[in-house]
């Protein structure tokens, strides 16, 4: 067996989840499967993806992934309004981009806003923004010289295959409640898959940046492989960077896996 793959038994032991949940993740595309040409059964499973899921489970404090179905896709303008309302409730006005300006960001790059919704009823339970941005603007955000509401929309770029980009993770937010850890896991898994899809498209991302303003946010950033590059005087606000060539980061490995398969069609899933 190639070291790039796990057997089903190895994958189940690594993730510690029921076999039915494992097959749900395979069917949903979150775990890529591969059936060697000489076999009719006994598929192998992508080691990088499984290791990344395991790391995300640790980062979010959740041992197993639930099989509740969620949908992850581009945010609509209606979703943006809901996301602002959720953010205001959670963080207050100082750290939230007003809806008018957020729509200007959206017009510059509508792909970067992603919504996580329950498949059963379409309720918004989480959202993210992976924002290609001017380096100088990112560093001002990291050093707390400006806030996101101050960012000029012209400093935001579309996803491009022509020039190298740096991306600021403006938001990874889930709604509070008894399912919050579950939704956080689902959100990060889907963001990782989205990052992988950007690599597959040939989008040249050199680094990701993020801010951890809470202990939980800082812990998740560090466990996903982000390195601290700034700390406020009181230690409460920290800035992080993740290079996409970092060999130790599972999140970066998702992006590199996409680049390795650049231009290739999605492979059919075989269980």
Care to give the gist of this entry?
The protein is an alpha+beta fold. The chain has nine helices and ten strands. The longest helix is centred in the last third of the chain and has 22 residues.
Please, could you describe this protein's structure?
The protein is built from 9 helices and 10 strands. With 271 residues, the protein is an alpha+beta fold. The protein has one domain: Aminopeptidase, CATH 3.40.630.30. A hairpin with a 6-residue loop joins strand 9 and strand 10. Helix 3 runs antiparallel to helix 9 (250-260). Mean pLDDT is 87; it is low at 266-271.
Question: What's the helix and strand layout?
Answer:
Elements: E1 5-6, H1 8-15, H2 19-27, E2 33-34, E3 44-46, H3 47-59, E4 70-74, H4 77-91, H5 99-108, E5 113-118, E6 124-132, H6 135-142, E7 165-174, H7 180-201, E8 205-212, H8 215-223, E9 227-231, E10 238-243, H9 250-260
Q: Can you give keywords for this protein?
A:
3-stranded antiparallel beta sheet; 10 strands; alpha+beta; 39% helix; 7-stranded mixed beta sheet; 271 residues; Aminopeptidase
Secondary structure tally, helices: 9
Mean pLDDT across all amino acids: 87
Ranges where pLDDT stays below 50 over 5 or more residues in a row are 266-271
Strand content: 15-25%
Number of domains: 1
The CATH top-level class label = Alpha Beta
What structural class should be given to the helix and strand makeup? alpha+beta
Which architecture does the CATH hierarchy give at level 2? Answer: 3-Layer(aba) Sandwich
**How far apart are the termini?**
16 Å
Write down how many β-strands occur, each being a DSSP E stretch of 2 or more residues: 10
The coarse overall form would be globular
Largest sheet: 7 strands, mixed
Query: How are the strands ordered across the major sheet?
Result: 4-5-6-7-8-10-9
User: What is the radius of gyration computed over CA atoms, rounded to a whole number of angstroms?
Assistant: 19 Å
Element order: H for helix, E for strand = EHHEEHEHHEEHEHEHEEH
How would you name the CATH homologous superfamily?
Gcn5-related N-acetyltransferase (GNAT)
CATH fold name, please? Aminopeptidase
Helical content (DSSP H or I, runs of 4+): 25-40%
């Amino acid at each position: 067996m190639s070291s790039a793959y796990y057997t089903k038994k190895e994958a189940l032991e690594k993730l510690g989840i029921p076999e039915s949940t494992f097959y749900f993740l395979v069917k949903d595309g979150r775990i890529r499967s591969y059936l060697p040409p000489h076999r009719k059964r006994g598929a192998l499973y992508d080691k990088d993806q499984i290791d990344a899921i395991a790391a995300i489970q640790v980062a979010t404090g959740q041992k197993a992934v639930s099989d509740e179905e969620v949908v992850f896709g581009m945010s609509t303008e209606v979703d943006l309004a809901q996301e602002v309302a959720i953010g205001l409730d959670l963080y207050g006005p100082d750290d939230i981009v007003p809806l008018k300006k957020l729509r200007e960001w959206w017009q510059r790059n509508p792909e970067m806003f992603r919504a996580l919704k329950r498949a059963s009823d379409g309720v918004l339970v989480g959202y993210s923004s992976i924002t290609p941005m001017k380096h100088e603007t990112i560093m001002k955000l990291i050093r707390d010289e400006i806030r996101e509401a101050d960012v000029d929309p012209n400093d935001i770029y579309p996803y491009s295959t022509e020039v190298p980009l740096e991306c600021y993770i403006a938001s990874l937010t889930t709604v509070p409640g008894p399912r919050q850890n579950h939704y956080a896991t689902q959100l990060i898994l889907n963001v990782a898959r989205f990052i992988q899809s950007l690599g597959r498209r040939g989008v040249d991302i050199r680094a990701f940046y993020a801010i951890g303003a809470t202990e939980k946010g800082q812990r998740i950033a560090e466990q996903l492989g982000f390195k601290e590059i700034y700390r406020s005087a009181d230690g409460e606000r920290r800035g992080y960077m993740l290079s996409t060539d970092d060999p130790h980061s599972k999140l970066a490995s998702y992006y590199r896996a996409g680049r390795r398969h650049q231009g290739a069609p999605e492979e059919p899933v075989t269980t």
